[in-house]
Amino acid sequence: MAQGLISKLMSLFDGNRSVARVAEDPVLTAELLLLFRMILADGEVSEAELATLRRICRESFGIEEASMDDVVDYLRTYGYETDTAQSLAMFRRLDHDRKQMLAQHLAEMAKADHQLARQEVQLLARAMKLLDIRPDEISPKSA
């Protein structure tokens, strides 16, 4: 069983540089996991949310559409090891601009389906408080 998992991971790393980059960067992994948690916060996954995630991954992290399925598989395999608090704690050490970018990405994810659920607002508020980001620091186009 363990050998099968190791073989699967090796094939992911060998065949997909994006997966290897995510696996080698715990901050990027934590950010992607937090974005996924925002998608799941309201209990529904919409195509608009997935499209927003794909755009953010492409524009901000250089993860192309063709790599997304493998990246998601990697995160599903290892995502359970990092909870939201651990992810946010990792970001506290980052510079302010990177924290601001994370908050902006979370706001984009929350509003992607044009409905702000209470759980999404709570997750965003908690993240912004822990990141020490004020609401006025998120650009109007994405908040």
UniProtKB/TrEMBL annotation:
<protein>
    <submittedName>
        <fullName>TerB family tellurite resistance protein</fullName>
    </submittedName>
</protein>
<dbReference type="Pfam" id="PF05099">
    <property type="entry name" value="TerB"/>
</dbReference>
<dbReference type="InterPro" id="IPR029024">
    <property type="entry name" value="TerB-like"/>
</dbReference>
<feature type="domain" description="Co-chaperone DjlA N-terminal">
    <location>
        <begin position="32"/>
        <end position="138"/>
    </location>
</feature>
<dbReference type="InterPro" id="IPR007791">
    <property type="entry name" value="DjlA_N"/>
</dbReference>
